[in-house]
Automatic annotation (TrEMBL):
It comes from Rhizopogon vesiculosus. Residues 384-506 form the SET domain. It holds the Pfam family SET. The keyword Transcription regulation applies. PROSITE patterns: SET (PS50280). The keyword Transcription regulation applies. Keywords: Transcription, Transcription regulation. InterPro entries: EZH1/2-like (IPR045318), SET_dom (IPR001214), SET_dom_sf (IPR046341). GO terms for molecular function: chromatin binding; histone H3K27 methyltransferase activity. GO terms for biological process: heterochromatin formation. GO terms for cellular component: nucleus. This is SET domain-containing protein.
Length: 512
């Protein structure tokens, strides 16, 4: 088939998609009529006779008391007619009216901050819709659109898959070219943190309709790397792994950017020196037993690529160790090691064959109070046991164990948001009279309105009118922990168990 230009591809995709869309709509109308037709035939249900005494019930207190204390139970037969009737006497217990709970906002429990950035530009719903005192129009201007105006139709997934399959199998268009046109309602291939249509199709049972031509056993291209492609597998895993000392885990909720692969390392030890370090053969096939190999071993391209990937990460390993990682004989690994990384004239060594010279090292001792190292307390999670219960100002946080001056009580956690989202959320928080936001740095604020821990219930206490001194027993401080700003609430005095944790929010909290 002759190649076609980009404009022709766009028109071809539009034409096939419109064709499949028309076929599906025609089938759906007929299929829906077929399913609804049996429901249009009514089946008469026998009427249930009512008690002749029901008309005699009046609203006097004696009748109400009798109805409350007695319940009539009627059993029905299979044809719907009453079979038997019995009366059950009940003991009425009048309970006291329960006091309403203190107002608060529910949130998802978290132990670490979650990066949010900005809220979705589509408004999910209008807050305080039945409250005339809230400025709905002004708050709506914070968003570009209303989410409920965009109707999501799952049928479009089925239609798009069928159109992509026909374009690929009938018109011989690569899936990449189909995706690049942007004509289909969904992207076929996944992008960072956004699964494509091919990935989504594996998570659901596809609708079987009359016009489908996709075989049941057909598999669409996967974004997952081949099991034989070691570099792609490592790149995919490494991208999700957070190397921050605060995290060291995949899918970190704070550092949402992808982690790139480190650049290839250069050898710092000559191969001849590495070989001299091997004292005994590793296993059958060790280079100490076989010796040099003249003919190249029969390795596939994937095998050679896997060894090169391992050498890029750690070139200064003996061939015996590389052989275990490659699942290949040691002498074969040595052959390709010489081929891929021959000894250079100059190695990446600062002082190859002489002692490192420099100034004599010295230590400067300082008097350190390790118990007041706020950064390490937050990093290690040395928090106090707390309890949330009713206090003088609604809900408060109370100690379940003693605390000393300088102790970390709890870390204040929540969503990391930008200024624009801080302003839009602030309108809602200001109207309800409860805000859970702390300023973190010049770019980010920490909001625990929707995600947080017990620290969100810590109450405010100002200065004493008589002495002018603060009455708080704790302070909220921003600490730089391994390059990450985090907020800790620290004790400014000794406290016994049962003491409520109180801080001074600061004047800026009440003016913004």
């Amino acid at each position: 088939m002759e190649p076609i230009d980009g404009i022709m591809i766009d028109k071809r995709v539009e034409s096939v998609f419109a064709e499949v869309l028309a076929e599906f709509r025609d089938w759906k109308v007929k299929y829906s009529k077929h399913l609804l037709r049996p429901l249009s035939i009514g089946k008469r249900v026998p009427s249930i006779p009512t008690s002749s005494d029901s008309s005699n019930i009046d609203g006097d207190s004696d009748t109400e008391q009798r109805l409350v204390q007695q319940v009539t139970v009627t059993s029905y037969s299979e044809d719907g007619t009453p079979a038997s009737t019995s009366t059950i006497s009940l003991q009425v217990i009048r309970a006291e009216v329960l006091e309403p709970h203190e107002p608060y906002e529910s949130c998802a429990p978290i132990s670490r901050n979650v990066f949010k950035g900005d809220d979705d530009d589509r408004m999910a719903f209008i807050p305080f819709a039945d409250d005339a005192t809230f400025d709905h129009v002004d708050h709506t201007l914070c968003y570009s659109s209303l989410a409920w105006q965009e109707d999501y139709d799952p049928d479009l997934e089925v239609i798009s898959l069928e159109a992509a399959y026909r374009l690929h199998t009938v018109h011989h268009l690569p899936y990449e070219d189909i995706d690049s046109t942007g004509v289909l309602p969904f992207k076929l291939f996944s992008s960072p943190r956004k699964p494509g249509l091919f990935t989504l199709s594996r998570r659901r049972d596809l609708l079987i309709w009359k016009g489908t031509t996709i075989p049941h056993s057909y598999e669409f291209p996967s974004s997952f790397p081949s099991p034989n492609n070691l570099r792609r597998r490592l790149e995919r895993i490494n991208a999700l792994f957070c190397p921050s000392l605060n995290c060291i885990e995949p899918l970190c909720t704070v550092h949402v950017e992808f982690n790139p692969m480190p650049p290839p390392r250069k050898p710092t030890i000559r191969l001849s020196e590495l070989l001299n370090r091997v004292e005994r053969p590793c296993e059958a096939g060790c280079f100490l037993q076989i010796g040099a190999v003249d003919l190249p071993p029969q390795w596939s391209e994937d095998d050679i690529s896997s060894l090169k990937t391992i050498l890029d990460i750690e070139p200064d390993m003996v061939p015996c160790d590389h052989a275990e990682l490659c699942l290949k004989p040691c002498h074969e690994v040595l052959y390709y090691r010489k081929l891929l990384y021959p000894d250079p004239d100059e190695l990446q060594i600062e002082y190859p064959n002489e002692e490192i010279k420099g100034k004599p090292s010295s230590l400067e001792f300082r008097d350190l109070e390790t118990s007041f190292c706020a950064n390490s307390q937050i990093q290690q999670g040395h928090f106090k046991e707390l309890e949330v219960k009713k206090s003088k100002w609604g809900l408060g946080v109370f100690l379940l164990e003693p605390a000393k001056l300088g102790d970390l009580i709890v870390e204040y956690v929540g969503e990391l948001i930008y200024e624009e989202t801080f302003d839009s959320r602030g309108e809602v928080a200001g109207h309800r009279g409860r805000s859970y936001v702390f300023g973190l740095n010049e770019a980010l604020s920490l909001d625990s309105s929707y995600m947080g821990n017990p620290s969100r219930f810590v109450d405010h206490v100002g200065t004493s009118s008589a002495s002018g001194e603060t009455q708080c027993n704790c302070r909220a401080l921003v600490r730089l922990v391994n390059g990450e700003h985090r907020i800790g609430i620290f004790a400014v005095k000794n406290m016994e168990a049962g003491t409520e944790v109180l801080i001074d929010y600061g004047s800026a909290f009440f003016t913004r």
